[in-house]
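FORM 7B: Structural annotation worksheet

SECTION A. Query
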Amino acid sequence: MTSGPRLVVVGDPAGRRVAFFQDALRTAGLPGARAVSWPDVLRGRARFGAGETVRLDSPGEDPETDLLLRGVDDPARVEGSGRWYARFTQAVADLARSVAEAGAVLVDDPAELAVLFDKRLAHGLLAAAGVPVPESPTSGPGAPVVRGWADVRALIGGAGPRRVFVKLAHGSSASGVLAVETNGAGRFQATTSVERAGDGRLFNSLRVRRYTSEHEVAAIVDALAPDGLHVERWVPKATQDGRAADLRVVVIDGRATHAVLRTSRSPMTNLHLGGARGDLDAARASIAAAGGRWEDALGVCERAAAVFPGTRCVGVDLLPASGWRRFAVGEVNAFGDLLPGLTGLPGGGAEGLDTYGAQVAAQFPARAPVPGRPPTPYASRTTGTSTP
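SECTION B. Predicted structure
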């Protein structure tokens, strides 16, 4: 008889992500993980034990955690991502030390998390590794700092690109993203989910809107700039049924295992902003019709994930250019695995498993769940414990 691995998950104990992970463990016949909340980590109350394996999950979706990290009293507010980044990366570094001192093991690399949550640093590393990314004047640690609208205007004026995305350097879920366009004759407009209140405060909205006054665009950019901004060329995307399309591809231990096509009538394809899941098979057919190979598209994602070898699972945002022949990586997301109901790609090694089941199978291959077959209870095994 053997006891199972002693697992800890740091996240929102009542949230979807932790629930999906616990379900995956049960399906594999593994004992449930001890859940530690981010507020306990941030307040220095989290404790770890020798022999535990610690997984970090997203600090999002919990208002208390958001308040502790950003210092704003309304989760819908956009501002505070710079403070969020500073507090989060410090908390992860402190947690890593506590885990090591306790004789436990942290699954992912804290230094890589700090890069993944800074779009400027991540973009620079991807570009240096030869991964195709949109052109960006703010890429890498030596790039100029964007201090406000005047800097953005200078970057897209003259010989610069006429269409760019302006993003919060530490944002997620399209928070604070603006798709900015100019006609080259001094007129600007921006498409965004940011709503600006009369007092100047910024809020995330579920409705994508368009600002056609430069004064309004400038006010939003100037309000966002203190948190840090990243600017990149707006790559014209391929379309499906008249809607802009991109892909979220999950890469686990270096292998692309899951993919979802996202389509939208706006520049932002995020599902919570009105985007919809498209037809992945039709997208693969479009790639083939254009003379490309689906395997090459997945290969771009795997090359992007390889830039972060200490992070076992990432979600890669893959941008197919118009015509479906070329691809660029928009972002690499540390917690990009929340895709309920999505099962693994054929031939990807995770067929029949969701993203959490695939991660459990990769970490504990001897306990990889077989879809449709009840797992053997872990305590009945007599061949030794699995190792992470």
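SECTION C. Observations
Residues 372-388 have pLDDT under 50 and may be disordered. The radius of gyration is 21 Å.

SECTION D. Sign-off
Analyst initials: ____
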